[in-house]
Amino acid sequence: MKILVINAGSSSLKYQFLDMKNEKVLAKGNCERIGEEAAGFHYKTADNRRVDLTMPLKTHIEALNQVVKTLMDPEVGAVKSMKEIDAIGHRVAQGGPTFSKSVHITPEVEKQIEDLIPLAPLHNGPELEGIRACKKVFGDKVPQVAVFDTSFHATMPPKAYLYAIPYRYYEKYKIRRYGFHGTSHRYVSHKCAELMGRPIDTLKMITCHIGNGSSIAAIRHGKVIDTSMGLTPLDGFMMGTRCGSLDPSIVTYLMEKENLSPEEMNRILNEESGMLGVSGLSSDDRDIAKGEIEGNPRAILTHEMLVYQIVKFIGAYVAALGGLDCLVFTAGIGENQVDLRRNICRGLFYLGIEVDDAANHQMVGGKAGEISTERSRIPVWVVPTNEELLIARDTQDIVTRLRYALTEDKTVVDPLDV
Ligand code: ADP
Questions:
Q1: Is 147:394 a contact under the CB 8 Å cutoff?
Q2: Burial level of 255, CB count in 10 A (0-12/13-18/19+)?
């Protein structure tokens, strides 16, 4: 089965095309600045050449048409006809209380994703647009599957997911912790258990997804019991431009003092805070690292804060799990930032964690492996994330069951009912 994985943002559309026979990526790329005259279209050819184009892409449909055209291009493409695209898997950020697993997208599911837009306006709206664009371009015959960022966290108990505000707001608006990056936490926790040669249902794990957006999950026996992101991806610890948890009074105080609207406040917390806000330099950790080497005090402070906040979260989750069998780092910073990993692990020395410097230096640029010493009481791993592969696997699984159900019983329409 060949599957197209789509990750649609408000002005972007990332894609990967995979052959599930050997889970090989046949093509990948992204469209950015959709809506502008000079939108960008970047892709890799089958022989790994990078192509960067500028063209007008006014809508997600135009972007998707360009992707399909490129996939079918006789020189750089991966298929001869659209018929070779068997199914489409979509990343959807917010599944809310409705979706605890990946689903086949029916008109009802589409409506449910739309109903969840108020809980994730920056994400679910554009993702729905991506789904609708695919429907227009591919028609109804190509099955589409939604894989939610929140669904891996659906096992959290109420004591972990409820905020201590009047209960009626949970009842009325479904305000609670949902958690995000679930597909990444699911992928790396399972992959790490596999690499360790241990069944996941025997392990207490903490997975640290540290990238531009970041979150940590506490996973007991394969099930999330707590995670740092909350109702939205703003909660948790400091990120590229997001503030993470803060005293809620700061929000009302600043709004009053600076006469800010909710939109302006939202923008400050989401786009001007975090590493960018503290350092005044950049949201990109490579720039902060460079600033640190140059002795920039705010870059040094930014890294001190980031390490401190992560160490605190890990400590809290060790307590929540009642122990720890394995610590995992993933995503852009977690997979590459050697110094940051070492400093975080130094802060965990009290747990008996010790990092092997040589192994730590080796595990960069997409390599997976253990970075702790033999003496370390708890193994520490670097496991590159692969959300697209998991989306493709879920899509294959659901479409296979859908086809099976349809051949067995013509009345079955939802594969998850079988
Ligand atoms: P996103 O949340 O957008 O998916 P990523 O997981 O790609 O983000 O992470 C982006 C962050 O990872 C940036 O802060 C960047 O500096 C850092 N990063 C990415 N690649 C490297 C690298 N090779 N070395 C150091 N840091 C890196």
A1: yes
A2: middle
Question: CATH second-level architecture of 199-382?
Answer: 2-Layer Sandwich (3.30)
| Token pair of 76 as six digits | 């750089």
Q: Report which secondary-structure segment, H or E, holds 3.
A: strand 2-8
Do 199-382 and 2-148+391-417 fall under one CATH topology? Answer: yes
Distance 90 CA to ligand 1 centre (A): 22
DSSP line for 184-197: HHHHHHHHHHHHHT
Q: Cβ(332) to ligand 1 under 6 A? A: yes
| pTM tops 0.90, yes or no | yes
User: What's the gap in Å between 333 CA and the centre of ligand 1?
Assistant: 5
Q: Which parts of 60-165 fold into alpha helices (H)?
A: 60-71, 107-115, 124-138, 158-161
Whole-number average pLDDT of the chain: 93
Question: In the chain, where are the structural domains located?
Answer: 2-148+391-417, 199-382
45 has a pLDDT exceeding 90: no
Question: In a mutational test of the pocket of ligand 1, which residue from 187, 282, 285 has the highest number of ligand atoms less than 8 Å from its CB?
Answer: 285
User: Dihedral of CA 15/33/68/44: which sign?
Assistant: negative
Predicted confidence (pLDDT) at residue 319 exceeds the cutoff of 70: yes
**3-state secondary structure labels for all residues of 10-21:** CCCEEEEEEECC
- Which CATH class for the 2-148+391-417 domain? alpha beta
Instruction: Report whether 283 contacts 271 (CB < 8 A).
Output: no
Does the C-beta of 211 come closer than 6 Å to ligand 1? yes
